[in-house]
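Hi, here's the filled form for the chain we discussed.

Project: internal
Contact: R.S.
Residues: 187
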Amino acid sequence: MIYLNLFISFFKIGLFSIGGGYAAMPLIKSQVVDLHQWLTLKEFTDIITIAEMTPGSVSLNCATFVGIQIAGIKGALVATLGCITPSFIVVMIFTFLYFKYGDLKIIKGVLRGLRPAVVGLIASAGTTIALIAFFENKITIQEKHINYISIMIFLCAVIALRKFKINPICVMLVSGIFGIGIYRFLV
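And the returned structure, exactly as it came back:
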């Protein structure tokens, strides 16, 4: 039964992941943390972090990591298959329709309507992860729960990426090394 639940949950995620993996984070959280309670919010955040660092899409990596956590290798295969099946079907259909009817106003209107919704989904996921990272996994925001080290790493990463145009891989590596140093030796 767990395999069927994994497949159906990640099939839904794959089907409604409009805008890619980052936009799917609220849906993944809803299925994995809230509905099925397969992971805690902290475990979910850790998996998202790992999924962002590894090659591939975030939602696909999450499916694999959650599947392995819940039901081993078979669970990873089932969750991953559930995640990619709707994408495969939808992309084939949309590609056909776009190349045949892409110049129609209704198609252009749908695409213009979806763009802001995708930005909202990404912003929602980013806000959730920021609250977990900056406020020590607390639901209520209080000054005593502020993680100043995480905020400092975040600000340095944003400056490195936006102002100095440093490669994101380098920013992730340096942030990870910096985190190891601080949390291992200073905290």
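Let me know if anything looks off before we file it.
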